[in-house]
Design brief:
Number of strands: 10
Number of helices: 6
Number of domains: 3
Structural class: alpha/beta
Low-confidence stretches: 1-8
Strand order of the largest sheet: 4-5-7-6
Shape: globular
Radius of gyration: 21 Å
CATH topology of the largest domain: Zincin-like
Strand content: 15-25%
């Protein structure tokens, strides 16, 4: 996303949504999106965005300042991987293995087949790390679903790990929970909050008082856990 300077024209895209009750602006990694109800006149949308120009510039600037890189640009020893709220040094080492092996401890270690050249070694390490992170989110989330499902009184029909750009989690009308693989960057209490949040949607579909009362009764410190998401949600790349 290009940085906005004083007086710069604000570039944005429009998305009309039947679920939108009013015009709202979302600033994220992919750009600035304006969401509006289907029948809102374009002139009214343009006028609203014009009044929010300074706010949009401030949000874009804040996004650039807070941007956190989850994975290194180059998958070589010396890079860093953000895992469970900590930046771990990436160590890529050629070894007598047939397939890449990944482990996380004091460092984030990837053992790759010795026969690979530098470029192939880096590509193999990247693919292995992404697969490992997704699998870890899935296994951790499944464990948390087992822990909380009986207490919530509902269990999902399925669990999906995706690559959402704007959501940490969602629950479909069919009872399938979808989680963003980048939750692997969050401390485990934060992942627990997201899983519980979506489980509660199996009981209460909206964010009304009954929903939040359910969350509060199960996880009294949910506000503190949600604060991490609000601080980092627009900054993870």
């Amino acid at each position: 996303m290009p940085e906005l300077t004083a007086g710069a024209v604000v570039a944005w895209t429009l998305r009309r949504s039947r679920r939108a009750k009013r015009v709202r602006i979302v600033v994220r990694a992919g750009g600035v999106e304006v969401v509006a109800p289907p029948r809102t006149p374009r002139a009214a949308i343009d006028a609203f965005v014009a009044t929010k120009r300074d706010w949009i510039r401030a949000k874009v600037a804040a996004w650039h300042e807070r941007q956190v890189q989850v994975l290194p640009e180059r998958f070589e020893t010396g890079g860093q991987v953000l895992y469970r709220g900590r930046h771990l040094e990436l160590v890529v080492e050629p070894a007598a293995v047939r397939w890449p092996e990944v482990s996380a401890g004091a460092t984030f270690r990837v053992r790759v087949p010795r026969r690979l050249d530098r470029d192939a070694r880096e590509a193999a390490a990247r693919k292995a790390v992404l697969r490992w992170l997704r699998e870890r989110v899935r296994s951790d989330a499944a464990r948390l679903i087992d822990r909380w499902g009986s207490r919530v009184g509902a269990r999902p029909r399925g669990l999906r790990i995706g690559n959402q750009r704007t959501l940490w989690g969602s629950c479909s009308g069919r009872g399938v929970i979808s989680l963003n693989w980048r939750l692997v960057t969050a401390p485990e209490p934060v992942l627990e909050y997201v899983v519980l949040h979506e489980l509660c949607h199996l009981r209460e579909a909206n964010h009304g008082p009954r929903f939040w009362a359910l969350v509060e009764g199960l996880l009294p410190d949910w506000r503190e856990r949600r604060a991490w998401l609000r601080e980092h949600g627009v900054a993870l790349d």
